[in-house]
TrEMBL record, chains A, B:
This is Histidinol dehydrogenase. The keyword Amino-acid biosynthesis applies. GO terms for biological process: L-histidine biosynthetic process. The active site is at E338, H339. It catalyses: L-histidinol + 2 NAD(+) + H2O = L-histidine + 2 NADH + 3 H(+).
Length: 444, 444
């Protein structure tokens, strides 16, 4: 059936132009759209200076919602609880089951304060404290993700954040009996304190600077569209930001022994998010790539989101032949994928070679979809190669540290001469005197 | 002597307008200078597209350095070692002593990978890995900070970063026999791999995108001037960024029992960095504030950096009366200072009330200056109230995490129905099938 195969890129890492072809496929340069940046800067300025009025105005304009006060955009705790109570029991149970697993995993990430005492009686340490208030962006758009409410809010709750404010684009607010219901129910399960049906750059600005109704938060987490991403970048520093996210992506490495249909469906599960999503398969077995290619071709027409999947697979997908394991690992590290499936017999032998990946799904029985919903780890992950430096969203994102230094009189006398020496060499006399005066007898 | 007292602001927290006066003094709004942002965007674009040529061009223009190739801007490992060997022994010893203490403190911050097994044989965990390459910005400008080389590089080295590239503005390169020598020696002590005498937005762009000579790094740390700060913000997301820094600041809380001269000198030690630096004293004892005011007045003329200190103290300093401990703590948390001295009898009784501070210096024998050089904790700290969400620079900044999920066949069969249920509710059929097909007998 090779002649009618679905048109997905086939790459060969043993070819001299592979590097170049791969880089073109990855297309990593962030799109610096000057128009988007200007629009976003203006929205931020308006919300910062005019508060609620500006939020209402943009929500009317962009979300085409007929609102004239913020109360219309807030979902109360009792509305969240009511949405949960109204869910079919099986679905409520699935949400609770997922929440429970996410909570258990994240409890292991909690960091504690520590300190130690030196022999001179001085004490050094690190004080670990939860953020006061976190703002969670729950994406709307092409799909409806109650799982994202759990994945953002539970790590914050585990960290001990005092107040969690979530925002989700308003279209869900209109459809309180439909898709929104599940978001509201998930907010109840996750313990969100306040929920606003607003989105876009105006929601980010409201969280970053606060308005009459929405309290300023200390950190904003969660992915969104290009306007949300641009806004997060522009407010970075005024407020904490988890990461800068691009389209979602999956790389699978397979040794050729997993059911090709499973792998095709795993690739589709990534592709169905968005036309810009990226699904890549790497294998050291050329014939296996043919088999997956055939599965893709055969399964495609059965997919409900075929249009999105086909566009994503055709424009951004690839099946890559790698001559050996070392080569396959090098490609993985170059991609630094958000999701990495090691669909191989002995994934433990591959793991030490992986340097950059958001989440690693090991073995044939760990499709990304299990991680997306309920395995436990967070599904908010670094994209576009940023796994080189960003980490999955976690409890650590909602904790911060203060250094603790407590010198004893003896400890100060021991350290002060070192500080004095270095301070005079940096020509900072006040530093030198401030240290030296703690030495007995040094101050006149 | 009150009539000739040095003109520093005296605030009273029991006055009705205090909140407003304090906010004005803090002046927290980041200066969004559109001209600076545009200039920086252009520099980044030029360096990104033209590489070394653009770096050389800006270095000639801004640092007035006559250079025509990058080799002239690189300090080799042997030059660093030679600078260290040529230092007077006492100074070399002070650097090594400081480095040793910084290393010991930071070793406690190292995070390790972890995993746990569920009863169904599934394994969950977190893989913690050092960054491949870090870029450290060492500020130049009004003072010369070899201590900053130690404070940036040692946490990176402890984390296990493979390659550390440091940059420091070129004027030091010209003065290889003077101030630069100490920077080069500190780089040798700290284990910096490559050192370039470049600075400004062009150095940030070179580290973020790489040039023919400078390899692209994964994260950039360390504070700089407004151009450096604007550049760090603009490249955030392309590369990791530690924090967005403003002028340095110190808040002291004193119970009125510390030598007023010590406290005045501590305030001066912050003020001498920069005219924009901020030194604030809070006390529950009005007479003590008078005593410190007198010390400030008397000691000021003796200071080598009197001009800078006087400008900083007059424009941005303050002596604040707070009626009681709770009130003093509330003011501290509102300031969220970079450095906080608890110069009180029982600092442990104050600590639980502190929610926001970069570093906390406890007791009368712990002036900030000891922490600046050699106590152990990092002196790269969150400023301008960003201690609400940023942490001190640390080993954790140079480590990143990947989530690990390894489902057993039994574990997948247990999780897949939950994922399937949630996926269908999010209308993501491929997610549902990808999960469900791992359940025995579910795939036709």
């Amino acid at each position: 059936m090779s002649e009618q195969r679905f048109p997905v890129s086939r790459l060969d890492a043993s070819q001299p132009d592979f590097e170049q072809v791969l880089n073109k496929l990855l297309d990593r340069r962030m799109i610096e759209d000057a128009d988007v940046a200007r629009t976003v800067a203006d929205i931020i300025y308006q919300v910062r200076t005019r508060g609620d009025d500006a939020v209402l105005e943009y929500t009317r304009r962009f979300d085409r919602l007929n609102v004239d006060n913020m109360a219309q955009l807030e979902v109360s705790r009792s509305q969240m609880e009511a949405a949960l109570a109204a869910l079919e029991p099986e679905l409520a149970e699935a949400l609770r089951h997922a929440a429970d697993r996410i909570r258990r995993y994240h409890e292991r990430q909690l960091q504690s304060s520590w300190q130690y005492e030196e022999d001179d009686g001085s004490v050094y340490g690190q004080h670990v404290i939860a953020l006061d208030r976190a703002g969670l962006y729950v994406p709307g758009g092409k799909a409806n993700y109650p799982s994202s409410v759990l994945m953002n809010a539970i790590p914050a709750r585990v960290a001990g954040v005092k107040e969690i404010i979530a925002v989700v684009p308003t279209p869900y607010g209109e459809d309180a009996g439909g898709a929104g219901r599940l978001i509201f129910a998930a907010a109840a399960v996750a313990g969100v304190d306040r929920l606003f049906t607003i989105g876009g750059a105006q929601a980010i600005a409201a969280l970053a600077f606060g308005t009459q109704t929405i309290a300023r938060v200390d950190k904003i987490t969660g992915p969104g569209n290009v306007f949300v991403t641009a806004a997060k970048k522009q407010v970075f520093g005024e407020v904490g930001i988890d990461m800068i996210a691009g389209p979602s992506e999956l790389t699978i490495v397979c040794d050729g022994k997993t059911d090709p249909d499973w792998i095709a469906m795993d690739l589709f599960s990534q592709a169905e998010h968005d036309e810009q999503a990226q699904s890549i398969l790497i294998s050291t077995d050329r014939e296996y790539l043919d088999a997956v290619h055939d599965s893709i071709t055969r399964l495609m027409p059965q997919m409900e989101r075929q249009a999105i999947i086909a566009t994503s697979m055709q424009n951004r997908g690839a099946l890559i032949y790698a001559p050996d394991q070392q080569n396959a690992l090098a490609i993985c590290n170059q991609i630094a994928p958000e999701h990495l499936e090691l669909s191989v017999e002995k994934p433990d032998e591959w793991l030490p070679g992986i340097r950059h990946a958001g989440a690693i799904f090991m073995g044939r029985y760990t499709p990304e979809a299990l991680g997306d919903y309920c395995a436990g780890p967070c599904h908010v992950l670094p994209t576009s190669g940023t796994a080189r430096f960003f980490s999955p969203l976690g409890v650590y994102d909602f904790q911060k540290r203060s250094s603790i230094i407590r010198c004893s009189e003896q400890g100060a006398a021991r350290l002060a001469p070192v500080a004095e020496k270095l301070a005079y060499n940096e020509k900072l006399q006040a530093h030198a005197l401030s240290a030296a005066w703690r030495i007995p007898g040094r101050k006149a």
